[in-house]
């Protein structure tokens, strides 16, 4: 086992100051002109990239890919069993229960973003996509009509809106910029990447968000996951309706905001069942 394996095998945690450790190791080795065996395997035959993905270390996955890490035939996207184990080991009584769920969802999406951005991996609809979408359902991170109504009422509170202006998702982008402005979801899509959500979830900034209750966390995850859910529910919707509508009608259905992530999941599953 190499130092890189040791770094990447530790599961990510909220408020973890030891972030970006793979990149720091690369920087130190570069300064000393020491080579790093990026694709070395441990005693179980796993590479650092495989361990980083399994441990949901999105920043280290990105750093390894930037250094040319090879996915190879042995690379495995995080399995449902890994995510279920993490959720199952987290008690609602833990002080950081809400942050852990947000971190879990954002890290999975950030890993997807890194893999696809670098052209390193193509998500499997049957396995990988289903795993990501089911995570949101099983973790209770899909907004219900009741929760959506609660968020709407919270937005009407002047004191809450003022607090949202002060809280930063990332430098220069506040909660208010994303969720209180007109076209909040589209605006969020332009201002925030999955990696931004991930850094927010694991960073110290979250400690100062006392107003970030579980209700707001679910709303945040609903917004964060919407792009992914829409992307993978579009073709199933077209197949279920036998492609009878013009393309712009499907676009309107997806963009009007009436369909929740839970609705999009039902479309995805209905298509799966008809296709099987």
Please summarize what this structure is.
ANK repeats lie at residues 44-71. InterPro entries: Ankyrin_rpt, Ankyrin_rpt-contain_sf. With 276 residues, this protein is mostly helical.
Structure description:
The chain has 276 residues and is mainly alpha-helical. Helices cover 62% and strands 2% of the residues. The protein folds into two domains: 1-76, Alpha Horseshoe (Serine Threonine Protein Phosphatase 5, Tetratricopeptide repeat); 78-227, no CATH class. The protein has helices at residues 3-8, 21-31, 48-54, 58-66, 80-88, 97-117, 125-138, 145-155, 158-166, 175-180, 184-191, 194-202, 214-240, 247-255, 261-275, and strands at 168-170, 173-174. Helix 6 packs across helix 13 and helix 13 (214-240) packs parallel to helix 15 (261-275). The model has no long low-confidence stretch (mean pLDDT 82).
Highlighted features:
single chain; Serine Threonine Protein Phosphatase 5, Tetratricopeptide repeat; mainly alpha; 276 residues; globular
| Gyration radius from CA atoms, angstroms | 20 Å
The helix content is 55-70%
Number of domains: 2
Class from helix and strand fractions: mainly alpha
Mean pLDDT comes to 82
* SSE ordering: HHHHHHHHHEEHHHHHH
Unreliable stretches:
none
The shape is: globular
Taking the alpha carbons of the first and last residues, their distance comes to 43 Å
Specify the biggest β-sheet. 2 strands, antiparallel
Strand content: under 5%
Task: Count helical runs.
Answer: 15
Strand tally = 2
**Multimeric status of the protein:** single chain
Strand order of the largest sheet: 1-2
């Amino acid at each position: 086992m190499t130092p890189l394996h040791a770094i990447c095998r530790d599961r990510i945690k909220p408020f973890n100051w030891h972030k970006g450790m793979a990149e720091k190791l690369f920087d130190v080795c570069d300064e000393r002109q020491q080579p790093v065996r990026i694709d070395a395997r441990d005693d179980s035959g796993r590479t650092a990239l495989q361990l980083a993905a399994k441990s949901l270390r999105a920043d280290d996955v990105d750093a390894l890919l930037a250094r040319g890490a090879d996915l190879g035939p042995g690379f495995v996207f995080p399995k449902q069993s890994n995510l279920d184990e993490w959720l199952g080991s987290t008690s609602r009584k833990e002080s950081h229960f809400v942050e852990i769920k947000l971190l879990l969802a954002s890290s999975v999406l950030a890993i997807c973003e890194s893999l696809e951005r670098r052209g390193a991996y193509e998500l499997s609809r049957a396995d990988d996509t289903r795993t990501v979408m089911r995570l949101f359902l099983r973790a209770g991170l899909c907004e219900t009509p009741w929760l959506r109504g609660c968020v709407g009422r919270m937005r009407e509170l002047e004191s809450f809106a003022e607090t949202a202006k002060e809280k930063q998702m990332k430098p220069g982008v506040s909660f208010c910029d994303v969720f209180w402005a007109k076209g909040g979801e589209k605006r969020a899509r332009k201002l925030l990447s999955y990696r931004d959500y991930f850094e927010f979830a694991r960073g110290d900034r979250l400690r100062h968000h006392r107003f970030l209750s579980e209700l707001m966390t679910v709303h945040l995850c609903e917004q964060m996951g919407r792009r992914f859910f829409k992307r993978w529910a579009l073709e199933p919707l077209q197949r279920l309706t036998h492609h009878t509508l013009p393309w712009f009608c499907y676009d309107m259905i997806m963009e009007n905001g009436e369909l929740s992530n839970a609705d999009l999941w039902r479309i995805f599953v209905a298509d799966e069942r008809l296709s099987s």
